[in-house]
Design goal:
Two copies of one chain form a homodimer. By secondary structure, chain A is α+β, with helices and mostly antiparallel strands. Chain A has two domains: 4-73, Winged helix-like DNA-binding domain superfamily/Winged helix DNA-binding domain (Arc Repressor Mutant, subunit A, Orthogonal Bundle), CATH 1.10.10; 87-141, 2-Layer Sandwich (Dna Ligase, domain 1), CATH 3.30.1490.190. Chain A has five helices and five strands. The first copy, chain A, has helices spanning 4-13, 20-29, 38-48, 54-67, 138-141, and strands at 71-73, 81-83, 90-94, 100-103, 125-136. In chain A, strand 1 (71-73) and strand 2 (81-83) form a beta hairpin. The longest helix of chain A is centred in the middle third of the chain and has 14 residues, at 54-67. Chain A is globular, with a radius of gyration of 18 Å. Chains A and B meet through strand 4 and strand 5 of A and strand 4 and strand 5 of B. Strand 5 (125-136) of chain A pairs antiparallel with strand 5 of chain B. Chain A binds a DNA duplex (30 and 30 nucleotides) through helix 4.
Chain lengths: 153, 153
DNA sequence: TGCTAATCAGCAACTCTTGTTGACTGGCTC
DNA sequence: GAGCCAGTCAACAAGAGTTGCTGATTAGCA
C-alpha cells in the first residue's frame, strides 16, 4: 500500500477531499500487517479521533477499495477484512484466533485441468483465484495465547 | 449427498426426529447441483409446504452440516451457501449471476512452498484449503441471461 | 473571505442469522 | 389406542455487519 502521504496525493488527484478523518484512517492502515475489519480500523482511529463515526470508516475504506489502494477480502470470518497488501498473494486463516497471514503461493494455470460438470462451468473465464488455507497458527496449536497481533475481531 | 431416504435413516439413527419439514428440505437438496443459500432452500421448500418457517430451514441445514451430510461454504456472496457435494472439490463463482460451480482441482502440497512473513505464519498447520475461482460463466460473459440454474440469491 | 461540492455524523434500516419461548408432534412405552 | 416427553416447530425479536438518507460541516479553490 502507498504511504499516507501518497494516499493523500492520490485522493486529491482524483478530486476527492482530504479530511483529518481520512488521514487518520491512512495512518491506521499504514504498515499494518494484520487484515483489519472495518470495526477494527474504527477502534484504531478512535484512539486519536474519538469523534469519528463508523460510517465514515466504512466510506473511506470503500473509497480506497474503489481506488485499488487496498482490497476487500471475505474470509468467512463474519465480517469483511481490508488488505493493504496489493501484491498477489493468498491467505492463511487461523481458526483459533481468526488472525490472517499473507502468503505467496504459485498456482500454475489451474484451469486447463479443471473438471467441471458438463454443461455447467464450461466456458468459465477466471478473473482471479483466491486460496484460503485454514488451520491453526503455531501459538494456537500450542494452546497458547494468540500472537501479539491478537485476534482481529 | 445421501438420498432423502438415507438421510431420513441417518436422522433417525442419531435420535433426531423426522418431520415433514425436514423431509421437504432433504428433497429440495437431493440432486441439487446449485449451491443454494438458506433463503433459496426456503423458497424451494415453500412451494410444497408454505407454512414452513425460515428458522426451521436454518435449523435443519445446520443439523445436516453437523452430521457432515452437507457442508457450509462462505464464498463471499453475502450469505452462506450449502453444498451437498461431499467429494473434495473447489468452487467457480460467477460474479455476474452469483452461480457457483463445483470443480475438482489438485493442489500439490502447497505448504512447503509457502512464503510466509517471518515470525507470523510460520508453524501454521493447515487443516483445509479452499480455492475460489472468480470470474464469469459462459452465459454472463456472452451478455446473456444466467444459466437455467439462475441466480442463486 | 466566500462559495460549492464533497464529506461528515447520526440515525435508521437493511440482510443474514440465531436465541428464546410456548405450542405442537413423532416415536416410544404401556 | 392412550399417554408421555424430548425434540421440533413457528413466530418473534434481537444481534452483527453494512449501507442509505439527511442536514450540518468543511476542504479546496477562486
Amino acid at each position: 500500500m502507498k504511504s499516507p502521504t501518497e494516499l493523500s496525493e492520490a485522493f486529491r488527484s482524483q478530486g476527492r477531499k482530504l479530511t483529518p478523518q481520512r488521514q487518520a484512517i491512512f495512518d491506521a492502515l499504514d504498515g499494518n500487517p494484520s487484515h483489519p475489519s472495518a470495526e477494527s480500523v474504527y477502534d484504531m482511529v478512535r484512539v486519536h479521533m474519538p469523534s469519528i463515526s463508523l460510517r465514515t470508516v466504512y466510506q473511506t475504506l470503500n473509497d480506497l477499495t474503489e481506488m485499488g489502494e487496498i482490497s476487500q477480502v471475505d474470509l468467512g470470518l463474519g465480517s469483511a477484512r481490508f488488505d493493504p497488501n496489493n501484491e498477489p498473494h493468498h491467505h492463511l486463516v487461523c481458526s483459533g484466533c481468526a488472525t490472517v497471514f499473507d502468503v505467496a503461493v504459485e498456482v500454475d494455470s489451474p484451469l486447463p485441468d479443471l473438471e467441471v460438470p458438463a454443461g455447467l462451468g464450461d466456458g468459465f473465464v477466471v478473473d482471479s483465484t483466491d486460496i484460503i488455507f485454514r488451520g491453526m497458527c503455531a501459538r494456537c496449536a500450542a494452546g497458547q495465547q494468540p500472537t501479539d497481533l491478537g485476534p482481529v475481531p
